[in-house]
Structures are given as structure tokens and as C-alpha cells.
Amino acid sequence: MGTIGGVRTNDKFQVLRADGSVIKGLYAGGETANRPFYRRVYTSGTGLGLAYTSGRIAGENAAQEK
What is the DSSP code (8-state) at residue 37? Predict the structure, then answer.
């Protein structure tokens, strides 16, 4: 079915430290960044949309980072 958990990310899929600050240059998407599913029920197949979308968003933001 999939995994629940992963690292916390912001809307750009940048990985966040425990204090909420961004770890520069580190992005996560798909099953490693289940941001939308924290404390929610996971439904089969929902990971696919997250994987496609988060990967695109993380890639676009990583490409713009200096």
C-alpha cells in the first residue's frame, strides 16, 4: 500500500529541521515526504499523485536554488 512517515517538508518540498528551519539544498518528494498525510488516513493509490507532483515541484525549486 505504501509508507506513512518520511521527513517534514515545506510547500517547496525542502526538508525541514525539527525547529522548522530549512536544510539548504535538501529536497524530498514522494514517499519520503508524506507532508499531506501527517496524522491522516492513507488511502491506496494516493501516493502516486504525491510522487508525481512533489517530484516536479521539488525539482523545479532545486533547479532555481543557488
Answer: G
Q: Tell me if 50 sits within 8 A of 34, measured CB to CB.
A: yes
What sign has the CA pseudo-torsion 57, 13, 32, 23?
positive
How is the chain split among helix, strand and coil, in percent rounded to 5?
Answer: 40, 20, 45
Cell 507532483 sits on residue: 53
pLDDT tens digits, one per residue of 44-65: 666 677 788 888 999 999 999 8
**Which is it for the CA torsion 19, 25, 31, 36, positive or negative?**
positive
Q: Which residues touch 28 (CB under 8 Å, ≥6 apart)?
A: 6, 7, 9, 13, 15, 54, 58
CA distances from 38 to 8, 16, 24, 59 (A): 9, 14, 23, 22
DSSP state, residue 31: G
